[in-house]
Amino acid sequence: MISYNIIAGDTLSKVFQRIPGVDPENLFIGRHFIIGLSTVTFTLPLSLYRDIAKLGKISLISTGLTALILGIVMARTVSLGPHIPKTEDAWVFAKPNAIQAIGVMSFAFICHHNSFLVYSSLEEPTVAKWSRLIHMSIVISVFICIIFATCGYLTFTGFTQGDLFENYCRNDDLVTFGRFCYGVTVILTYPMECFVTREVIANVFFGGNLSLVFHIVVTVIVVTVAMLVSLLIDCLGIVLELNGVLCAIPLIFIIPSACYLKLSEEPKTHSDKIMSCVVLPIGAVVMVFGFVMAVTNPQDCTHGQEMFYCFPDNFSLTNTSDSHVQQTTQLSILNISVFQ
After folding, report:
1. What does the function comment of this entry state (predicted)?
2. What does the pLDDT look like over 138-150, one tens digit per residue?
């Protein structure tokens, strides 16, 4: 929920700055105001639903917008990528901080926490139907994530930010539309996470049932806490990394494996038990080392700043390393027309 708030604030603030006649320094288009406004007007009302099935049409809209965003990112890889300087060792397979990326990727695929809610929302919930649904969803998600990651890195290489849209220039109208779609998507996805948080609180503290009054109170408290934390943090990268190593890794690798080993009556030589014995320690190592590296070696964040390649006149002054690119040959190419 914190991640979604940060994304909404970062992306939509740049969208509103493109409105003709609007002062970029206007308080009402700042990320803090947008986070607060989106919380009050959209995420909180949607999160107050009691039945997760009512979010079905909203999720469909979000999926359609994701397809639009994907097309925009792919288009900009072709039109913008050749004009962005490539960083040194851009094509090295992995570096020491790759372990932090495992946490981020795990966070992208985590769906375990809302599986029970989604399963119970099916018209005829059966294991066979659920299996088909979850496998199709994961395959589609992998496909989308691979395209996003590949196109983003091909375009910006080592300059790629935790929030990919932070890499694009503000005067890019096509990307501005993509930012708007992206902001709407995360706002519409936010209630899914709030449903899970509220469900956990209800099960732990209220025996699984919340009266209407407590339903509203718990929802407001959860959404408010997430909003306040979002206002204090302005860098998405560190949030994704910590979410990944502290939440996603345990939920995906550690806890399911431990539960299976504890509850399964299969012999120790069974393939599933062997796999669990392998996955559990790997997850524990990634969690510990990922957390240490995320804290001691945080990702650089250029929140709210234009990247150097958005200023062609200053391009040669921004990069001091000749190994990054041949700057002088690109000065005549990299101009505002690239982004129109």
Report:
1. Putative sodium-dependent amino acid/proton antiporter.
2. 899 999 999 999 9
CA separation for the pair 13, 24 (Å, rounded): 9
Contacts of 14 (CB under 8 A, 6+ apart): 165, 170, 176, 179
Asked whether residue 235 is domain-assigned, the answer is yes
Residue 302: give the domain boundaries: 1-308
Cβ neighbourhood burial of 55 (10 Å; 0-12, 13-18, 19+): buried
Among 192-206, 239-253, 271-285, 304-318, the range scoring the smallest mean pLDDT is: 304-318
Domain count, the chain: 1
Helix (H, G, I), strand (E, B) or coil at 124: coil
CA angle 306, 243, 145 (to 5 degrees): 65
Question: For the chain, percent helix, then strand, then coil, each to nearest 5?
Answer: 75, 0, 25
Rounded-to-integer distance, Cα 143 and Cα 253, Å: 21
What is the tens place of the pLDDT at every residue in 78-109? 999 998 988 888 888 888 778 878 888 888 88
Residue in the structure block whose two tokens are 């991640």: 3
Quick check: is 334 in a domain? Answer: no
The vertex-100 CA angle with 249 and 168, nearest 5°, equals 120
Which residues, at least 6 apart from 205, have a Cβ–Cβ distance to it below 8 Å?
Answer: none
Nearest to 38 by CA among 65, 63, 11: 11
Tokens, residue 19: 């409105």
Output phi, psi for 235, to 5 deg.
Answer: -120, 115
Between CA 196 and CA 115 the distance in angstroms is 9
Least Cα distance to 78 among 141, 1, 155 occurs for 155
Cβ atoms within 10 Å of 289's Cβ, excluding its own? 15
Residue 300 within any structural domain of the chain: yes
Query: What's the pTM?
Result: 0.81
User: What does each C-alpha distance from 208 to 152, 179, 201, 203, 215 come to in angstroms?
Assistant: 43, 38, 8, 4, 11
Residue 13 lies in a domain: yes
